[in-house]
Amino acid sequence: MKKMENISLPEAFVEKMSRLLGDGAGNFFESYERERSFGLRVNPLKAGERLPEFLSGLERIPWSREGFYYPEELRPGKHPLHEAGAYYIQEPSAQACAEALDPRPGERILDLCAAPGGKSTHLAGKMEQKGLLVSNEIHPARAKILSQNIERMGIGNAVVTNMEPAGLVPGFREFFDGIAVDAPCSGEGMFRKDENARLEWSPAQVAVCAARQDQILDCAAAMVRPGGRILYSTCTFSPEENEQTAARFLERHPEFCLERPRAAGFFSEGRPEWAESVGLKGQRDELRKTVRIWPHETGGEGHFMALFVKNGDGAGDSGGMEPDRRQKDGRKKRGGEKKDKRAGKDQGELMEAARFLKENVREPDRLLAGRRFLTFGDNVYLVPEETPELTKIRVLRPGLQAGTLKKGRMEPAHALALFLKKEDVFQWAELGTGETAAKYLRGEAIGAGELEAVSGGDLKGWVLMTVDGFSLGFAKADRGVLKNHYPKGLRRP
Q1: Sheet order of strands, 400-406 included
Q2: Which residues are catalytic, by number?
Q3: What CA–CA distances, in Å, run from 460 to 359, 418, 427, 457, 493?
Q4: Is the pLDDT score of 2 beyond 80?
Q5: pLDDT band at 331 (very low <50, low <70, confident <90, very high)
Q6: Positions of E strands within 6-66
Q7: Are 132 and 201 in contact (CB under 8 A)?
Q8: Which one, of 189, 41, 216, 205, lies nearest residue 111 by Cα?
Q9: 464 bridge partner residues
Q10: Which pLDDT score, from 0 to 100, does residue 349 have?
């Protein structure tokens, strides 16, 4: 291991980068002696254009519309607004990926390797709660973290799945307008911030990652529609996983071409000469359309991006999904009397959910626009109309959880609270950002006299609790006391 001032780098990595960069290697290695940059994104689904007051004065990240640099000592992850989903902490360079894919409201988007959720939540913000976002993660524990972050950011048009990429292909063939593939990689770009990445790195690992990336990209190619796009990204420097992966993909899939993505002007071009061993049959200059993000040239860690576009025009096409395969219920079909009883129970649950929304939400029809109810056990979800039948797919979150039926009445879900804004409900109460908010996050009851502001009148029943105007969770008010319904698993000590 070569010892920099603060970081030990693997010798084989140092030799490789020195050979690749030549005279530029000195500046590259000097970046490991500098403090890394910290970044966050304001959540447009909750904040709109408003920057929370305690973040005022932060420097903007030039390639990310909602991105800001912040000083390490600010510690925004400890602030109540973090739990309210007002922003997402994300490394600055990583924020370029969603900008490059550039999803539009109403599209069908897949984040194929999505955990922990930085890119999914960024994509969702650009989709404005319209269309369908499928966020997939192969590892179950990481998929749960992904699902939690989708919930925290108030996203209402996302489905979270836990599948190998190949397992998604049969159900989503040529279905998506855009696919993000932030592929598992050797992590060289994270050496400055992640000691484990440095310790686990080896030339053999680079080869293993490159082979896996080829397989993942082949799955993505099968699921994107004609005219659609795939944004491939890594957080590594190895040409085997970057330019060479892009070259191999184009060799296997001549129906794709490369496009220079948005935000590319802030960064460096790819290096076609590093992929000469692959050969592109005269298409060498195509690789100049790929993007390199170097830590010694910008305020962020190392990344690579390639935007592939599939030939053809499939806009408005239903892809591989037939109309009669839209998801209608989360259960297998049953026959006879059991089926009738189940249908009756489902109808009762949906009527109760509709009653709850009518009594607590100002414009329930607007909330339901583009969504439909789905029952799963005693849980009621609002799912995007675009959602197909998810048979043989492990689904962690089929949509926005509206609530759970308990003793014939619906108890609203935490996800619904984070999705709603105070303008959406009849009753809300402001906690402020101090001790009252801390009490709520600990799961304690709140007295009416501790609130900074309320929607008006005596509170009774379900109340949306807010912090600096951002929804944080539910409480149930009765005789001047608000019983805490912040989830036990999220409560702070």
Answers
A1: 371-376, 379-384, 400-406, 409-412
A2: 235
A3: 12, 20, 8, 9, 28
A4: no
A5: very low
A6: 8-9, 39-42
A7: no
A8: 216
A9: 428, 474
A10: 82
